[in-house]
Structures are given as C-alpha cells and as structure tokens.
Amino acid sequence: MRIELRVCKHCYEDEHGNPEKAAITQDMVACARRVREYKDLIGLDALYVTQVEEGDPGGAEELAAIVARIENDQISLSDTQLVMEDQSGNMLVYPEPKDILEVLTRNIDQIAEQTRQDVTIELSSEAARLLSA
Q1: Which residues lie below 8 Å from residue 28, measured CB to CB, with a gap of 6+?
Q2: Which of 20, 22, 92, 103 lies at 20 to 30 Å from 128 by C-alpha?
Q3: How far apart are CA 46 and CA 28, in angstroms?
Q4: Percentage of residues in the chain with pLDDT exceeding 90?
Q5: Do 6 and 79 form a contact (C-beta atoms < 8 A)?
Q6: Torsion angle, CA of 89/98/8/49, rounded to 10 degrees?
Q7: Closest C-alpha to 50, from 83, 18, 14
Q8: Cα–Cα distance for residue pair 44/32, rounded to 1 Å
C-alpha cells in the first residue's frame, strides 16, 4: 500500500493567517512523517508528503488522484487530501482534515503495538478538538 498526504504549503507555514488550520495541517504532516518513519512495521510500501501551492499545475503528486468540488459555480480542487492506493491500484481519497487525522493516528496506534519505542505525536489542541468532535 502507498499513501500520500498532500497539504497546502501556505497553510502548513501559517501564511494564510489561520492559526487553527495551520496547527491541524502541521499535525497531519507530523503524523504522516512518523508513520513514514515506521512504515515497514505496518506493511506500507511508501508514504509521501507533498506540499502544494495555489496555481500549481499538478503533476508533483505521487498518486494521481485529485478531489474537486463546486463552489460558487466554479470547480475548486482540494489542496489537502490523503490518498491511499492498494496493491490492486484501488484508491481511497480522504479530503477532510478530521478523516485524514483519524487515518494517520490509527496508523500510529498500529505502529505503537509493534514497537517499544514511543511513537506518539503530541497533537495541537485544535487537532485534538477536531478528532473528538
């Protein structure tokens, strides 16, 4: 299985002036990097973290799946999503931050069961609130 976390670079670096979204984005990246560090313990082939910017033409992503929605009669592409591809080429795409955090933290829980090392990630209060909602 391969996984790619795609996030907005500006959200990650808190350049949009939305500290809550920045904290959640930073937590998603921290979780993904922890999972990537221990991916072999839970049978993952690869985990990619890609930061995208508004206006990117695409193509930098490792797994070719993009979520779109219609906002104000315009097509809007999701810059934050978790894409999972299994050995058969089937893809699951999670565009919602809560779902992304849920998947990644479950992976960390699975890793914790396989090692004696402390693999926990201290989530921000914003991410913890989102997961408990």
Answers
A1: 5, 7, 80, 82, 97, 100, 101, 104, 127
A2: 92
A3: 16
A4: 74
A5: yes
A6: -50
A7: 83
A8: 12
CA distance 28 to 7: 9
Please give the Cα distance from 110 to 89 (Å, whole number): 23
pLDDT in tens, 64-84: 787 888 888 888 777 889 999
Identity at 86, one-letter amino acid code = D
Domain ranges (residues) in the chain: 2-132
Beta strands, E only, the chain? 2-8, 46-52, 68-71, 74-77, 81-85, 91-94
Question: From CA 32, how far away is CA 83, in angstroms rounded?
Answer: 12
